[in-house]
């Protein structure tokens, strides 16, 4: 199906122009813009890059093609007497082993070459120690923004709350906001000394201040777009932000990783998001005149994305959705050594699978899967536990049928968490399983189990069976999990202070590699869903 082209909104006759005009009355005392002059501005944006600095095996996306595209757009905009800003909705880290093993250095150096102007801090920026994040900022060379992630000691933003750009005669304030779910999604061990406040409450105070300093306000966020504001078990996202905080002209978003082919207009604010991995570059063109945005046009531009079609012989082949974008040679030259280094370390065969193991986000966060069971079994076996529990947000990819490499395992478990365990009394185990089994479907907290079955009745785990036997009130049970959830990640009970808690020191991906090597070929039927939790 042909992707939608440009979405056109003539804002002069909508609530957006009224909102901007009203807010502009509170704007700079002496605006620099000239009366009746039209100012053309283009906002380019990406989000949720997750380590995809290199094109995939099908030749899709990649930072080299992205550079060619963005360079061409910038040239086009400049020739039309316009100006542009390039923004990111965050989550540069975590997702592809070649990047993860190198602390996303190729990604941030690539963004430096692309001349990003600013990015929002995403929750995955806290998958590493703060020292790594500071090093990444040096590689990037542009502002990392978040007004609501604070240094706990000083109460000031950990990096910068906002940045004001002088764009021709216009002052454009770019404010960063990060989901308050970061407190449970980020690695708790790396969040010590950091305070995370509600981005909406912070914005309610900050936006009126920025209106006194700037003509246009853009919120670059990592909060998620949820249709009609229905965020479920997630923290409130961009729709809730726009509804609660008047005066934001544009939200450049991320986190939920969904493409918005048309802006979602809420309370006079245009909400944008460009899917994930650099698959698209979002482009918003607008005209600012006499204190208001009077016209805008939007599109998501695919970066060498392909679709399947039938050729003349009836064979299924992949073709470009739009014209192929050449890869920029200077970007390729810079990135190639990183890719080669990563490939040499990762393309090591460790086993074979006779079935696909399902870790796709939309599936594993909603139901029990064979991959969730496999990971839980591997953790359980490594530390001689009775039960294994895995949060679905820590499962990031499918494990495909055929040859299994170290790389494919790291794509499934990229976070470098440690397998941990605790010995619980039957009462403690019941309380823990109650909390884990109640995690909401559709969120990363949703639990995958092995070695246990139960019924969740009136919010409490009942009919608990451990490896086919009824729970014994006088027995102690060992339960395995990763140190992320043991530290309270994803809102799980914090058990690191329990006297029986042990961090094994074994990296979760290495534990899965070892299990696959020992049990290859993997038979999917042995890990098929059994309905561990009944509701």
Number of strands: 28
Give me the side-by-side strand order of the main sheet: 1-15-14-2-3-4-5
- Rounded to an integer in angstroms, the radius of gyration calculated over CA atoms is 24 Å
The pLDDT mean sits at: 92
What is the 3D form? Answer: globular
Point out poorly predicted stretches.
1-28
Share of helix among residues?
Answer: 25-40%
Question: What is the count of DSSP helices, taking H or I runs of 4+ residues?
Answer: 15
Task: Please state the structural category.
Answer: alpha/beta
Distance between the termini: 39 Å
Major sheet, described briefly? 7 strands, mixed
Beta-strand percent range: 25-35%
Pfam family, one: Metallophos
GO molecular function, one term: UDP-sugar diphosphatase activity
Organism: Marinomonas primoryensis
Protein name: Bifunctional UDP-sugar hydrolase/5'-nucleotidase UshA
Question: Can you tell me about this structure?
Answer:
There is one protein chain. Helix 4 (105-114) packs parallel to helix 5 (130-140). 27% of the residues lie in helices and 28% in strands. The chain has 535 residues and is of the alpha/beta class. Strand 2 (39-46), helix 2 and strand 3 form a beta-alpha-beta unit. The strands form 7 sheets. A 7-stranded mixed β-sheet has the order 1-15-14-2-3-4-5. Pfam families: 5_nucleotid_C, Metallophos. InterPro entries: 5'-Nucleotdase_C (IPR008334), 5'-Nucleotdase_C_sf (IPR036907), 5'-Nucleotdase_CS (IPR006146), 5_nucleotidase/apyrase (IPR006179), Calcineurin-like_PHP (IPR004843), Metallo-depent_PP-like (IPR029052). Residues 42-256 form the Calcineurin-like phosphoesterase domain. One of its GO terms (molecular function) is 5'-nucleotidase activity. This is Bifunctional UDP-sugar hydrolase/5'-nucleotidase UshA.
């Amino acid at each position: 199906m042909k992707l939608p082209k440009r979405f056109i909104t003539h804002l002069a006759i909508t609530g957006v122009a009224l909102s901007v005009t009203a807010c502009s009355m509170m704007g700079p005392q002496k605006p620099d813009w000239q009366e009746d002059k039209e100012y053309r501005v283009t906002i380019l944006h990406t989000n949720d890059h997750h380590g995809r600095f290199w094109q995939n095996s099908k030749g899709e996306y990649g930072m080299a093609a992205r550079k060619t595209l963005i360079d061409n757009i910038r040239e086009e905009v400049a020739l039309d007497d316009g100006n542009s800003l390039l923004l990111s909705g965050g989550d540069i880290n975590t997702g592809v082993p070649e990047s993860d093993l190198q602390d996303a250095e190729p990604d941030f150096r690539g963004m430096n070459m692309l001349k990003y102007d600013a990015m929002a801090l995403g929750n995955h920026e806290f998958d590493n120690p703060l020292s790594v994040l500071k090093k990444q900022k040096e590689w990037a060379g542009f502002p990392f923004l978040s007004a609501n992630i604070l240094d706990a000691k000083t109460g000031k933003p950990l990096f910068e709350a906002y940045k004001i750009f002088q764009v021709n005669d216009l002052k454009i304030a770019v404010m960063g906001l990060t989901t308050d779910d970061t407190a449970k999604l980020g690695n708790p061990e790396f969040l010590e000394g950091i305070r995370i406040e509600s981005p909406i409450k912070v914005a309610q105070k900050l936006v009126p201040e920025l209106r006194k300093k700037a003509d246009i306000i853009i919120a670059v966020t990592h909060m998620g777009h949820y249709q009609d504001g229905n965020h479920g078990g997630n923290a409130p996202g961009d729709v809730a932000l726009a509804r609660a905080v008047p005066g934001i002209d544009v939200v450049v978003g991320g986190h939920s990783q969904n493409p918005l082919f048309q802006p979602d207009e809420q309370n006079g604010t245009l909400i944008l998001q460009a899917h994930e991995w650099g698959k698209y570059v979002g482009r918003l063109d607008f005209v600012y005149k006499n204190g208001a945005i009077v016209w805008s046009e939007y599109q998501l531009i695919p970066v060498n994305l392909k679709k399947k079609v039938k050729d003349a012989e009836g064979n299924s082949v992949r073709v470009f959705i739009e014209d192929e974008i050449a890869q920029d040679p200077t970007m390729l030259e810079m990135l190639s050594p990183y890719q080669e280094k990563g490939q040499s370390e990762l393309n090591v065969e460790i086993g074979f699978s006779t079935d696909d193991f399902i870790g796709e986000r939309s599936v594993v966060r909603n139901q029990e899967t064979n991959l969730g069971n496999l990971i839980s079994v591997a953790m359980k076996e490594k530390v001689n536990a009775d039960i294994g529990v895995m949060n679905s947000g820590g499962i990031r990819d499918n494990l495909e049928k055929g040859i299994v490499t170290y790389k494919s395992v790291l794509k499934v478990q990229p976070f470098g968490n440690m397998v941990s365990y605790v010995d619980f009394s039957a009462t403690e185990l019941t309380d823990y399983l109650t909390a884990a089994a109640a995690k909401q479907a559709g969120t990363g907290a949703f639990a995958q189990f092995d070695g246990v079955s139960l019924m969740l009745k009136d919010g409490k785990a009942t009919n608990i069976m451990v490896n086919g036997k009824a729970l014994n009130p006088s027995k102690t049970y060992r339960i395995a999990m990763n140190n992320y959830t043991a530290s309270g990640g994803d809102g799980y009970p914090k058990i690191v202070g329990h006297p029986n808690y042990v961090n094994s020191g074994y990296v979760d991906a290495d534990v899965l590699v070892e299990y696959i090597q020992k049990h290859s070929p993997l038979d999917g039927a042995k890990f098929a869903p059994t309905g561990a939790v009944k509701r």
